[in-house]
Amino acid sequence: MALRSDSYVVLNDGHKMPVLGFGTYNPHTYTKEQVGESVKVAIEVGYRHIDGAAMYGNEVQVGEAIRSKIADGTVTREDIFYTGKLWNNNQAPERVRIGLEQSLRDLQLDYLDLFLIHTPMEFQPGDNPFPTDKNGKAIYHNTDIRDTWKALEACKDAGLVRSIGVSNFNKRQLELILNMPGLKYKPVCNEVECHIFLNQSKLLEFCKSQDIVLVAYGVLGSSRAEGWIDQNSPKVLEDSVFNAVAKKLNHTPGQVIQRYLLQRGVVVLAKSCIPERIKENFQVFDFELNDEDMEVLNGVKINLRYLTLDVWKDHPKFPFYDEY
């Protein structure tokens, strides 16, 4: 499967998404400013796809980094594909544009390339991203996700965003949008956790059948952020089967897992704040996995999800109870 460093997929609305993206979620071990600096390094290395979100709390710094690389002539705005996300407190239709415009202000960009519904779980509408009651319990809301989607379609028509999609949706939740009356634009992608421990083969097959791109986060096994991730869970990059393939190919485990996903037709997001690692993670275009290697990696099935979102598992629209 020939892939070059400028390889992209054509989305179902005709726009192009680079197949390799740089993630900007920062665990508390790094500052927002460090994330901004890492985005500059990523662009210098060759990344053109930057994946962000309002909920990450660093779009100001990420926007500054992107604009600095435009200002110094490294890239043009058209070279960059930026993904933003609508958080749960802004899913009521009347708040969708509010959420999008806040991201545009923080980033100081005129438009987003892609805007995703971050999760299918609505919270109480308002300015508080994590509304809770007096007992500290999250306050949920029951917005019809199809109404949220119509509001996203309106943002696309207004030129505020070029493509629209979803994240952390299961098949059933995707079908709600795909089968809605009056659908104007299909989701171009579904961004979900995906790696060799959770290869998402059934969801990938369904998405391909609908001309929806599967975008993978957590490909290197998640940032293991305390409070979100079980600290005792096995580490993807330490898997023995996986490391044997990497050793044979004389590439790092991180490079091999990204290559594995790319060859399955998945768009890959990787993140790091370490310049050497950022450069290393981008070096996945000069080798291929053969059928035997792919089969070996397909066989690593332990169905481990790192980001379980257990804190909201009582939400009526919690996505991870379904098989896929």
Automatic annotation (TrEMBL):
- By its UniProt entry, which InterPro entries does this protein fall under? AKR, Aldo/ket_reductase_CS, NAD(P)_OxRdtase_dom_sf, NADP_OxRdtase_dom
Q: Which residues form the active site?
A: 56 (proton donor)
Q: Annotated site (Lowers pKa of active site Tyr), which positions?
A: 85
The residues covered by the NADP-dependent oxidoreductase domain are: 20-299
UniProt: substrate binding residues: 118
Q: Which Pfam families match?
A: Aldo_ket_red
Which keywords accompany this UniProt record? Acetylation, Eye lens protein
Looking up PROSITE patterns in the UniProt record yields: ALDOKETO_REDUCTASE_1 (PS00798), ALDOKETO_REDUCTASE_2 (PS00062)
Question: Does this entry carry the keyword Protease?
Answer: no
**Molecular functions per Gene Ontology:** oxidoreductase activity; structural constituent of eye lens
Assigned protein family:
Belongs to the aldo/keto reductase family.
- Put simply, this protein is called Rho crystallin
Q: Which organism is it from?
A: Engystomops pustulosus (Tungara frog)
